[in-house]
Amino acid sequence: MHNDTSVSRSMLFIVERPWITVVFCFVIVLISALGMPRLTFDNDYRSLFSEDNPQLLAFDKIQSTYNKSDNVLFVIAPSGNDVFTPEVLSAIALLTEKAWQLPFSSRVDSITNFQHTSISDGELVVADLVLDPSDISSSDLGEIKKIALNEPLLVNRLVSRQGHVAGVNVTVQLPELDPMEVTEVAAAARGMAEEIKTLYPKLEIHLTGMVMMNNAFVESTLADSQKMTPIMYGMIILVLLLSLRSFSATFGSILLIIFTLLAVMGFFGWLRWPITPVSVTAPTIIMTMAVADCVHLLVAMLQNMRQGQAKKEALLNSLKINFKPMLLTSVTTAIGFLSMNFSDAPPFRDLGNIVACGVLVAFLLTMTILPAIMMILPVRVKLCDASKQNWMDKLALWVIRRPKFLLVVNGGLVLILTAMVTLNELNDEFVKYFDETVEFRRATDFLDQEMGGFYTIEIALSVSEEGGLNEPLVLEKVEQLSQWLQQQPEVLHVNSITDTFKRLNQNMHDGSQDEYKLPAARDLAAQYLLMYEMSLPYGLDLNDQVNIDKSGTRMIATLKSLSSNEMLVVESRLHNWLKTNMPDIDAEVASPVLMFSHIGKRNIASMMGGTLLALVLISFILVGAFRSFKLGLLSLVPNLAPAGVAFGVWALIDGNVGLGLSIVTGMTLGIVVDDTVHFISKYRRARVEREAACDDAVRYAFSTVGSAMWVTSVVLISGFAVLSFSHFTVNSDMGLLTAITIGIALFMDLFLLPPILMCLDRK
Predict the structure, then answer these.
(1) Burial category of 97 from C-beta neighbours within 10 Å (exposed 0-12, middle 13-18, buried 19 and up)
(2) Which of 55, 172, 282, 722 is the most buried (most CB within 10 A)?
């Protein structure tokens, strides 16, 4: 009673002294908003993985021993479908030369500067495969083509098997001091590609590689924030104007949204939390959640005024009737988003924390500054005829007359669609995190179709003995692994040091084809390697393949575009082969694609615990709030079923569940509780305080909260539907499925929850 009195006094103070409330809230929001300039951006794909992620740790271990594999790959496609012409080779040679000037470049590889070995006067000669492409005879051109298309280190890596597409690969060593470094490199690469195309207009140049992928994260983040925010504001204004039919109420709602965003984003700016391609969606989600709060307050206030109450009285009554349900829904929604802290991907944790904070801030501002603004602004409404039924009253009557029919039909639909969840497959393809409007995606698809894949697996092999790599038995094991990989149907290319050893051995035996094999003695292998390394020019050494003390080597297998499940099958097959055939050699297997292939399954496993905890907490809160064990548990039916039904529908739409969808159940659990809480609160109010029959209680719930339910649901569906237009499919899939889930939840709250309440209460 004391708490209710305190709340009522606070509400009365806000309504009677609106200017003091507005100024106080504005100062608090302003102080928080000053932190916004401190917001930082993290667009590295590594940000999707936690520091203890085993695949990331394995990849970092390989990267610390060998050169980093961040790269820009220029894919060159001549209009004549022939790389081996003087003009095309000249273009490749010029691009190879210029590529050294890319920011942070450490190595450039192409068919023109490939270090071809031969013997002259009994000495090993190492030189560029193409010395002067502008002055080359047809016979030399034929010889170069023959060498290139028979060189294992080039085919499907830097030139296509048919010789119609070539690549210039630039290895980049980013200092990682500024998240916009990749943007600088990408801009320089694009400028370089345009310069070459101007000089050689018959060429097409596509840009891909890990740097371009990171840049795609940057550009997608910026594009989403610039595109989605205005669209969302437009949709919110339109929906509010149509539903509230009040300019003042709409204006107040927009101010509430702005203040909420400034306060929340500024707060996290003070904490210096990074914005990622995932958490960049937080403002859009917060906008929708803030509207959901204020709509319940404003709809009830406007309904009261249309029934003849003065603005002050109507606002106070709305505050009193909505305070507890709104507090409940805000807390349960925040719990749902906080469950995302169980995610294995840090950006989803950040998203959950930012939105949870936004939900609570929106509730506080809805209960303070919004009513104060509404008291200051003029509000005009048309009085309505109390005897005239609106469409929500008619819907309530339709539902009340058919409880058993709705219970059977809707219950059956829930069971059937939920059973279809098993048709979904946990699958992902991280290149397809970007849709086909993104330059990186188009370039990578072209690479995959015409020359080689973007996906790689890196295998670091090492022995305990210094110089042990030169041991014939070790080299033979490495060669066996290389040959086994080449036999796998998914593998397009294998970059192995054993190919270099075989070529050197052949060179030292007068080019005899029979001698294209590994050296037979350790000292011979060491001698070959030393001679070769001493002949290599600066920047084209073997540090990317052989470690410093010659005890280990890195092999890189390039694969076709595979789904995460297919990639995990390849990885498992590889581990089994290594365990069986190389038990005495340490092997580390890792790559970005393996990291992405594991993250979906890891995230679903970790989110299950978070969702379960959120469910338990929300259940206890609802049981306590309704003071009824039956109502508390009953409310879970329309809250859990939407996610099951939505994933059943998803099985019909797509059937693949990836990283973006792995958080939907936990995230939507808190959102869909809102309408259920408001409906049951009004139903219970009618049953307890008004002593109404169950039919009349359902009618009362429809009339008092039905309009607000569909308005908030439309806003929420619109907000998450806007996310579905993101070019970053992790966000777009998440937005689409969340919108579907919220739509299903509204349907169940209107057509399944009332029949359940009526059937149980009648018994």
Answers:
(1) middle
(2) 722
List, in sequence order, the alpha helices (H) in 200-281: 210-244, 247-270
Asked whether 740 and 646 are in contact (CB, 8 A), the reply is yes
Please list, in sequence order, all residues whose beta carbon lies within 8 angstroms of the beta carbon of residue 410, skipping any fewer than 6 positions away: 748, 751, 752, 755
| Distance, CA of 341 to CA of 351 (rounded, Å) | 9
What pLDDT does residue 324 have?
86
d(CA 76, CA 70): 19
Distance between CA atoms of residues 75 and 514, nearest Å:
35
Residue of 315, 320, 407, 400 whose CA lies nearest to 692: 400
* Plot region of 565 (φ>0 → left; ψ -120 to 50 → alpha; else → beta): alpha
Distance between CA atoms of residues 678 and 666, nearest Å: 20
Tell me what the pLDDT averaged over the chain comes to: 88
pLDDT of residue 86: 93
| pLDDT at 1 (0 to 100) | 42
Which region holds residue 104: left if phi is over 0, alpha if psi is between -120 and 50, else beta?
left
pLDDT tens, residue by residue, 692-731: 888 888 898 888 888 888 888 888 888 888 888 888 888 8
Q: State how far the Cα of 156 lies from the Cα of 151, in Å rounded to an integer.
A: 10
- DSSP letter, residue 273: P
pLDDT tens-digit readout, 150-189: 999 999 999 999 999 999 999 998 887 777 788 999 999 9
What is the distance between the alpha carbons of residues 323 and 304, in angstroms, rounded to a whole number? 16
Strands 71-78 and 203-208: antiparallel
Both tokens assigned to 25: 């809230």
Strands (DSSP E) along 631-742, which ranges? 656-657
Burial of 510 (0-12, 13-18, 19+ CB in 10 A): exposed
CB within 8 Å of 236: residues ≥ 6 apart = 253, 254, 257, 287, 288, 291, 715, 718, 719
Mutual orientation of helices 210-244 and 282-306 as an angle, nearest 10°?
0
Total residues found in the chain within this entry: 763
Q: Which two tokens stand for residue 610?
A: 């978070």
What count of other Cβ atoms lies within 10 Å of the Cβ of residue 101? 11
**DSSP letters spanning 83-144:** S-SHHHHHHHHHHHHHHTTSTTEEEEE-SSS-EEEEEETTEEEEEES-S-TTS--HHHHHHH
Rounded Cα distance between 328 and 674, Å, is 8
| Helix residue ranges, H only, 271-376 | 282-306, 311-338, 346-367, 369-376
Q: Whole-prediction pTM value? A: 0.82
Q: Are 741 and 646 in contact (CB under 8 A)?
A: yes
What integer pLDDT is reported at residue 385 of this predicted model? 58
Angle, nearest 10°, between helix axes 210-244 and 181-199?
110
Measured CA to CA, the distance from residue 422 to residue 499 in angstroms comes to 46
Are the C-beta atoms of residues 414 and 641 closer than 8 Å to each other?
A: yes
The token duo for 519 is 């050296």
Contact 306, 568 (CB under 8 A): no
3-state helix, strand, coil in the chain (%, to 5): 65, 10, 25
Decide if 215 contacts 186 (C-beta within 8 A): yes
**What does the pLDDT read at residue 757?**
86
| Residue type at position 431 | V
- According to DSSP, the residues that pair with 426 across neighbouring strands are 657
CA-closest candidate to residue 729, choices 220, 171, 324, 202: 220
- At 261, the amino acid letter reads L
The pLDDT score that the predictor gives to residue 181 is: 87
Residue 550, classed as helix, strand or coil, is coil
